[in-house]
Amino acid sequence: MTPAARISAAVEVLADIDARRRPATDALKDWGLSHRFAGSKDRAAIASLVYDALRRKASAAWIMGETTPRAVVLGMLKLQRGLDLDAIAALCSGERFAPEPLTAGERARLKGGDLSDAPTHVAGDFPDWIEPSLGRLFGDDLVPEMQALTTRAPLDLRVNTLKVSSREEAHDALPHLNAVETPLSPLGLRIAPGEDGRGPAVQSEPEFLKGWIEIQDEGSQLVALLSGVRPGEQVVDLCAGGGGKTLALAAQMENHGQIYATDNDARRLAPIHDRLARAGVRNVQVRTPRAKADAVTDLDGKIDCVLVDAPCTGIGTWRRNPDAKWRLRPGSLEVRRNEQAAVLDRAARLVKPDGRIVYITCSILPEENDDALAAFMENHAGFKPVPLDRALEETQLGHLKNIVRPTAHGLQLTPHKTGTDGFYVAILVRNP
Ligand SMILES: C[S@@+](CC[C@H](N)C(=O)[O-])C[C@H]1O[C@@H](n2cnc3c(N)ncnc32)[C@H](O)[C@@H]1O
């Protein structure tokens, strides 16, 4: 397919997403099935155009003065891909499979359109109803913070110290990936996104299959390190899901002590078994829930650290899931808030005196972060947040002190500040 034909295809896919209100992955898959002549490179390039258009949906429509899929793609080519008017006009030749030639109005918009008068939610490409909440966190930094969430994320790897002695060893074994060390996590390697937005097929590398490396955003690595889990502790990973954090905790504990990994959704937990085996983890007991039964009741009051990697809106991962932002609704935030209250309540019963809850989300909404903890502490007087500086020093992460955004009870990582996904973490200690 020509580059122009790929643009026509992206416009078609965006129209399908709009018309049928469906996730981008489904629309892209259907397009691929009904256009079997398109090769994998074409499909990747079209997906990349669609995701870039979703990243800049509001701002691209603003500079073009209309919200059609064609306008959004044209505006994105200017804003996200940095193409000038001539380059965009050359793609829109009207020839077979290429988009129709630019109209005079489109030319004028592509030449002169900018975001100087755009409302904040347009300049930052997010739904307007979350502006008051985001404003509470970011203040004057709101637009740059949200613009950083419209960029493409790199592919980060965590080096598994249960299998490899150092980050350098893993790095040197994978020279063809052109990875660099992550600046903040001592365990991370970073691969820049390719031109089509795709990273290399890391999962088929022999080193991945041997468990030397895991795919994990640097932010996720940092919040796991901040939990401060130590060899010998008793730990519950209450929302373990596929086990991303569990694996990181096991490596920090050097396979000593015990982690109980559970989740209320047995299907989400299922992949953890293979991942634990591959990573050489020996100190994790997976507690799969049976029917609705609580799988960790026997541990109440006995646990040093309960990790609550809470269900959340996932706003902090919008770099990776840009279509999620346009599907977010107040109702879904409310559902997540109720779930967060429920998991925190459950965590409280597990913690022993002087033990701690480490609360994590991949969200930047205060409602899911500080507010959730404030509500929790109102009902659980025995829990207090650990001061940020102390938590960072104790986990050898003092270098983050002037980079992260402190909040009332924890800290916020963001693409703008830390170059990571938007993770929030807070540590609450139970009275002795
Ligand atoms: C952010 S995901 C966890 C990701 C995982 N920790 C990782 O690092 O890959 C949140 C998880 O919380 C689980 N969850 C939601 N409500 C829960 C509850 N009441 N008890 C336990 N797990 C719950 C969801 O099934 C989901 O797997």
Automatic annotation (TrEMBL):
Q: Name one GO molecular function term.
A: RNA methyltransferase activity
Q: Where is the SAM-dependent MTase RsmB/NOP-type domain?
A: 145-431
Residues of the active site: 362 (nucleophile)
Q: Which Pfam families match?
A: Methyltr_RsmB-F
Keyword Transferase listed? The answer is yes
Name the InterPro entries on file: MeTrfase_RsmB-F_NOP2_cat, MeTrfase_RsmB-F_NOP2_dom, RCMT, SAM-dependent_MTases_sf
Give the residues the record marks as binding S-adenosyl-L-methionine. Answer: 263, 309
User: Is Transferase a UniProt keyword of this protein?
Assistant: yes
Q: Which UniProt keywords apply?
A: Methyltransferase, RNA-binding, S-adenosyl-L-methionine, Transferase
Query: What processes in GO biological process is this protein linked to?
Result: RNA methylation
PANTHER family, A to Z: NOP2 YEAST -RELATED NOL1/NOP2/FMU SUN DOMAIN-CONTAINING, RIBOSOMAL RNA SMALL SUBUNIT METHYLTRANSFERASE B-RELATED
Q: Tell me which family the UniProt entry assigns to this protein.
A: Belongs to the class I-like SAM-binding methyltransferase superfamily. RsmB/NOP family.
Its name, as the record gives it, is RsmB/NOP family class I SAM-dependent RNA methyltransferase
Q: What does the record give as the organism's lineage?
A: Bacteria, Pseudomonadati, Pseudomonadota, Alphaproteobacteria, Hyphomicrobiales
